[in-house]
Every structure is written in C-alpha cells, then in structure tokens.
Amino acid sequence: MDLDFTAGEGEFRQRARDWLAGHVPGEPLPSLETREGFAAHRAWEGELAADRWSVVSWPEEYGGQGVDIVKWLVFEEEYFAAGGPGRVSQNGINLLAPTLFDFGTDEQRARILPPMASGEVIWAQAWSEPESGSDLASLRSTACRTEGGWLISGQKTWSSRAAFADRAFGLFRSDPAVDSAKPHRGLTYLMFPLDADGVTVRPIGRLDGKPAFAELFLDDVFVPDDDVIGEPGQGWRIAMSTTGNERGLTLRSPGRFVATADRLVRQWRAHGDPGDTALRDRVADAVIGARAYQLFTWANASRFAAGETIGAESSLNKVFWSEYDIALHETALDLLGAEGELADGGDWAEGYVFSLAGPIYAGTNEIQRDIIAERLLGLPKGRR
Q1: What pLDDT does residue 35 have?
Q2: What is the pLDDT of residue 134?
Q3: In angstroms, rounded to a whole number, what is the distance separating the alpha carbons of residues 68 and 92?
Q4: How far apart, in Å, are the Cα atoms of 211 and each of 66, 215, 216, 373?
Q5: Positions in the chain short of pLDDT 50
Q6: Distance CA 201, CA 196 (A)
Q7: What was the pLDDT predicted at 367?
Q8: Per-residue model confidence (pLDDT) at position 167
C-alpha cells in the first residue's frame, strides 16, 4: 500500500477543497428527514452536480469526473472535513448506481444515472418487509408477468428516504414455485415510481416527529420490462452486489469518521477534564479507530486498483464502522455530560441515535459475523 499521493492527486484534493470552501453552506441545512430539509438537500445535490462534484467517480457522460477510487476517497475526506451536508441521494448513488454499472443496460444507465446525479430523482430502498428483514430471501412481495412488464404487489417497510423520494428499487418474488429450501431463487430486481397507480406511501413517524422511513403498499403496480435490472429470476445475485457495495466502501467512507474524530478532539480540548484519564483514553481510542479504518480502506483501495475484489471481507468493514460509530458518539456524549442533551450538543445526540441503527441496517451484525465465521474463517455453519 502506497500512501504517497501523486501530484495529480494532490491537485485534485486542492481543487475539491477550494470548491467546497466556496460552496458548503455556512449554516447547517434543515434535517433531510423533514419535507423542508429534503428539498434543501435536493437543491444541494443540484449544486454539487452543476460542477460535477456529486458523483466524481462516475464517467463524464453520466455527470461525473471519471476519477479513480483514490480520488474518490480524497474527495470524501475533503467533503466531510469541510462539513458538507448529508447526501440525500445516498441510496441511489451508493447502492443502485453500482448495480446499474454492473448489471444494467446502456439504456437504463443513460436514462437513470444523470437525473440521479443531479438530485432531480431521489431513490428509496424497498428491501425489508414486515416479516423479512435480515432474512431477505424470505420476502413475500410478488412480481407477476403481464403484457410488457410486471405487476408488483405486497408491502415493504422501513424504506429509507421513501417518505419524500421519487422512485424505489427492490426485490420481488417472481417465481412462487421455487423450492422453499432455496428461497433466494426466483427473485427479480425491479425499479418503480412512488407516485404510480397502486402505490401507497405511509410515512413511519419517530419519537422526534421526523419521518425518516416509510411503509410502501403495492397493489398491482405496473413495472415495464425496461425497469427490470438484469435477468428475471436472478435478483438475489444482483442484490448481493448491491449489499456488497453498501457494506464495503461506498456507504461509510473513512472521511466521515476522521472528521468526526477530529471534532471530538476539539470537544475534548475545549471541555475535557485533564484528570479524567479514562475519558481521555477513550478519545484517543476514537482517533486511533478512525485512523485504522482509514488505513484499512486505503489498503482495500490498493487492492481494487490492482484488479482484486474484497467479497465477504466487506462484512469486516460493516461490523467495524457500525460499532465504532456508536462508541465514538457515546464518548462525545459522556464528555459533554448533561450538556449533550441541549442545543449545543444536539448534533452529537442526533448522531448517536442514528449510530444505533448501524448494526442493523445493511445486514445485521449478527448476519455479518456468520459470514465472517463461515466464509473467511472456514468455520462450520451454525444452526439457524
């Protein structure tokens, strides 16, 4: 792993830093989990896209700059260091787009990716169902063949971004006759608009009143063949590509944690008790963890550049960053004490609440540990 940046990479970093310094909003945008905040973040995506910063690693024809993974990681570091707003397009650009690059058609990429990059179309996930969460292969929502496409029916829940998004993507059971012992077969990967006939979107309210998620009720919603990704019945294999991106580099780049750990250090210097060596050590551990994750990611980037893949090792990433995120925010709240519940500490409190979901979404950490044990360590399969 070579940690020396080239002159071109250094120039790219400076160009990104200069652009962000001139464009990142001086005041935080409203929460993207509210209607007002969602609109503000959509507008921010458009501002990023206008100068090709929303998807820097994509080919220019789709709105990107065509940079490699090293420059993408550089941009992520600069983005979080500059305090850039949360990315409301995250589901689309980090999950659906990699799937379209791998399995989509030229027509799908040309039609879907540019408005995704600009924030004109925001995507929601339609994975989980009331009785199918981490065990995604047990889903019951169906896709039935009809002239020119499919009719999808069923219920999806905990669909992130769905309260205000434009379109959604997910898996549907297109062959109900598949052997029950192999439920991952006979699934089809589909995309559909959330304002289509037969779609009901019901926001899921939280204690803070923000509808971060929604339930989707689907009643014979027509999906044309043009909105099927890959071959019908092969959705499981395609979805595993999507979740691999989610658990790997694209969902939680190290720049996010490095910037948050730096913020924690500033908090310690401003409010920490030098005599509290236990808390001081936890702050130090947070810095070490962020740096370790950064180096681990750079090592993976070097492997990608050499043509390798990480496969099941993405589960190591997911377990690490999700549990690290909780520990980082717990340290900050313990440092602030009661003030962490007040306005000045609100960002830490909100970040902590969000971090608690980390071990659940993108595949629960219990599932990830099974994958690590079986596929990386070669241990026998446990009883389900």
Answers
A1: 92
A2: 65
A3: 19
A4: 35, 10, 13, 36
A5: 345
A6: 11
A7: 86
A8: 98
Write out the two tokens for 281: 């050590």
196's CB contacts (< 8 A; 6+ apart) are: 221, 222
Secondary structure string (H, E, C) spanning the chain: CCCCCCHHHHHHHHHHHHHHHHHCCCCCCCCCCCHHHHHHHHHHHHHHHHCCCCCCCCCHHHCCCCCCHHHHHHHHHHHHHCCCCCCCCHHHHHHHHHHHHHHCCHHHHHHHHHHHHHCCCCEEEECCECCECCCHHHCCCEEEEECCEEEEEEEEEEEECCCCCCEEEEEEECCCCCCCCCCCCCEEEEEEECCCCCEEEEEECCCCCCCCEEEEEEEEEEEEHHHEECCCCEHHHHHHHHHHHHHCCCCCCHHHHHHHHHHHHHHHHHHCCCCCHHHHHHHHHHHHHHHHHHHHHHHHHHHHHCCCCCHHHHHHHHHHHHHHHHHHHHHHHHHHHHHHHCHHHHHHHHHHHHHCCCCCCCCCHHHHHHHHHHHHCCCCCCCC
Residue 214 token pair: 């929604």
Tokens standing for residue 377? 């360590």
Residue 143 and residue 178 in contact, taking contact as beta carbons nearer than 8 Å: no
Q: How far is CA 11 from CA 78, 96, 251, in A?
A: 13, 30, 25
Distance, CA of 224 to CA of 196 (rounded, Å): 12
Is 246 labeled as catalytic in the residue annotation? yes
Residue 103 in contact with residue 230, Cβ under 8 Å? Answer: yes
Catalytic residue among 246, 330, 339, 374: 246
Cβ-based neighbours of 72, under 8 Å, separated by 6 or more: 56, 57
Q: What is the pLDDT of residue 301?
A: 82
pTM, rounded to two decimals: 0.89
Convert the pLDDT of each residue in 285-341 to its tens digit.
999 999 999 998 888 888 877 777 777 788 888 899 999 999 999 999 999 887 777
- Please name the residues in contact with 340: beta carbons below 8 A apart, sequence gap of 6 or more: 332, 333, 348, 349
Report pLDDT for 101: 94
